[in-house]
Amino acid sequence: MDKVTGFEVPAGNMKKARKFFKNAFGWKSEEWGGDYSHLMTVKMDKNWVPKEKGAINGGMFKRKSKNEKPLLIITVDSIIKSLEKVKKAGGKIVTNKTQAGEWGWWAEIKDTEENIFELWEDKQ
């Protein structure tokens, strides 16, 4: 079974949003350039894996349009195989498999209710 392993939140004002998540939930943030921040809901090990079982961390990106919504990230063994399953289940591919630096690959899909999710495949 594939699991939700992260999230991403759009923000118009990154500084204000980082302050909100810190004050409201105690989350720590680390700015990764002006357009992206890592949001930490729990401590991580040296491989960036949450130390608490079942917990996830996420990120915040600079909002480019009002249509952008929070995004759940689902880790899969194979994006290619998962995209085929999504199509057979009635979903659509929004963004095909795309390299994410040295870490792995991602793709975006749309479910039957027009919600967008990100698929993630770790580089082996």
Tell me what you see in this structure.
The chain is an alpha+beta fold and 124 residues long. It has two domains: 9-64, 2,3-Dihydroxybiphenyl 1,2-Dioxygenase, domain 1, CATH 3.10.180; 76-124, 2,3-Dihydroxybiphenyl 1,2-Dioxygenase, domain 1. It has two helices and eight strands. It has helices at residues 14-25, 79-88, and strands at residues 3-11, 28-31, 36-40, 57-62, 71-75, 92-100, 104-110, 116-122. It has an eight-stranded mixed sheet with strand order 2-3-4-1-5-8-7-6, covered by helices on one side. β2 (28-31) and β3 form a beta hairpin. The protein is globular. The mean pLDDT is 93.
Supply database-style keywords.
alpha+beta; 2,3-Dihydroxybiphenyl 1,2-Dioxygenase, domain 1; 124 residues; eight-stranded mixed beta sheet; 2 domains; 2 helices; 18% helix; globular
What is the name of the CATH architecture of the largest domain? Roll
Gap between N and C termini: 19 Å
Percent range for helical residues?
10-25%
Order of secondary-structure elements: EHEEEEHEEE
